[in-house]
Amino acid sequence: MVAGVRMALLAGTFALVLSPAWTQPPPPPVYSDKALEQFAILQDGGPLLVPVTIQGKTHSFILDTGASCTAYDKALAPLLGAPTGRGRVLLATGVEMADQYAAPDAAVGKLPLPKGQMVYVTDLSKARAVGGLDVRGVLGMDFLRHYVVELDHGRGLVTFRQLARPQSGASVPLFMHQGVPWASVCLPGGQREPFMIDTGELGYSSGSLRTGLVKALEAEGKLAPEGGESKFAGAGKRSTVRHHARLEALTFGPVEQRRLLFSWPAQCNTLGLNFWARQVTTFDFPNGMVYLGPPVEHALADEPDRSGLHFLKLGRCLVVQSVDPGSPAARAGLRAEDVLLDVGGAPLDRGSLVPIRTLLSENGKTVPLRVRRGLATFAVSLRLEGWWDKAPPP
Fold first, then answer.
1. CB of 288 within 8 A of CB of 154?
2. 303: region left, alpha or beta (phi > 0 left; psi from -120 to 50 alpha)
3. pLDDT tens-digit profile of 117-156?
């Protein structure tokens, strides 16, 4: 889901950095070009959506490697029969208690979802409000772990395979913990940290950093704050506040990437969809490997919001949730509960809201807005800039 919403405490994760499982040689690779199923995906930074069919009707589910189990939106609960109990599950909102149901007859295209296990029901209304898309479920690792999953944002495709393709790219070992995949990442100075592979994490950044690591990197001058606070819809009427910073360098496998944007606070490190979308990425879950293929042209860069404007899709309306003090949006007089009728000409009534948020992160750009407040309609313009260094203290 949106970056920063997942706040899972995964006990024992950091001890795995030195586990013997890290040093065992991988099995000899076996390759194939055969595709079992393939779907078009958004290329604008929006979530990985795949079609799941249940009782003859197809719904959009988020392909989320950071979710241990498949979950259905509460609106689909009547299709699942009677609940069998409650259990703890790692979902986009973290580790939560959720109603359990016996897995129904359902399929991802031609691929059947596993039977004989539990699925969960959760409220995805916040995900719909934040993303602007009609998301009705989460496709988790209970299904994904059986397949090779290839992400190609350059071509706008996700492909499910039984075996990885030849020449898929540089390989990096994965390991499973708490039902989700992780990998070892090298930070500045040679320090190694485990990062959760989380394709359900979206937002302005490449992922999240655990709070203790942020403090250590800042003390060493290897993490530089950048951007204002980002507010995301949380449970009920609460919001999650996130901060952002540039990491000096990060090495994943043979590739070093510099000045990636990360967010915090978080209780574990993650690499989100922005990170994986920059190249053709192949997750070989059955064999515990990820392959980094060629880079994708025109991949989205990590850029923080420069408007100070936070909004949700409520029905057919784009409603301002909050405005950061001292930001361009605040200087333009915008406030909570204003309704955005036009943002730089971008379509507001259909599709992902990610392109609008990307537009509002372009440094130096002036974006015209048309706004409704009560019965009045007015126009303002936002001059996007790094306003956070100039903002008055709260």
1. no
2. beta
3. 899 999 999 999 999 999 999 999 999 999 999 999 999 9
Q: Please name the residue that has the structure tokens 């993490």.
A: 223
Question: Residue 213: what are its φ and ψ, rounded to 5°?
Answer: -70, -40
Give the burial class of 44: count Cβ atoms within 10 A of its Cβ; 0-12 exposed, 13-18 middle, 19 or more buried: middle
Q: Please state, in angstroms and as integers, the Cα–Cα distance from residue 180 to each residue in 27, 141, 147, 168, following that order.
A: 20, 6, 14, 22
What is the value of pTM for the model shown?
A: 0.88
Cα separation of 197 and 157, whole Å? Answer: 19
Q: How big is the CA angle at 208 (ends 203 and 211), to the nearest 5 degrees?
A: 140
* Tokens representing residue 156 in the block: 């706008």
Query: Token match 């979308």: residue?
Result: 277
- Residue 331 in 3-state DSSP? helix
Choose among 378, 336, 340: nearest CA to 360. 340
Cα 155 from chain centroid (whole Å): 20
Residue 2, phi then psi, degrees to nearest 5: -65, 145
Cβ-based burial of 101 (10 A; exposed 0-12, middle 13-18, buried ≥19):
buried
